[in-house]
Amino acid sequence: MRKFLFCFPLFLSSFCVQAQNELDEQLSQIDTSSITSGILYERVSPFANLYNFNQSKKFNTASYSYLSQALSELYRASNKKSLISLEQLEQRLSHDEKDLVDLVILNTPFQILNYNEASPEKGGLLFNEATKTYTAISNKPSFYTLQATLVAPTKKAI
Prior knowledge:
This protein is an alpha+beta fold. The protein has helices at about 1-25, 65-75, 85-90; strands at about 105-115, 125-130, 135, 145-155.
């Protein structure tokens, strides 16, 4: 059991890196210059669901754990080139002060694929199953830009 618990995170991390590289290979024929933030959200599993954050009153409040997940996803979606890692954020926070609450603000644009799986002609990309690559649809954007804005306290209560 110990071996499984030790090996599973290694397996999971190697799987995530492979998935990121696979998406980049699938997009090799696409002009990626419109990914101005360097962050392509589909490179990661979107557990934070940043597509829908701030879209309704029921899903517009961020806790520190939610912000941590969002930061981790965006950092990894940039191939670890944009933003800071969760570990770097933890190092910057003041853990000594009991009455001090740090606020963390995450405000960044990110890009998503303009791919419509149900109706591919409605998107800006087509996926070729034979070659496992995306091709652009003329006169349609290949990527959309979204904005992530989250503010969260680092403590639940004082």
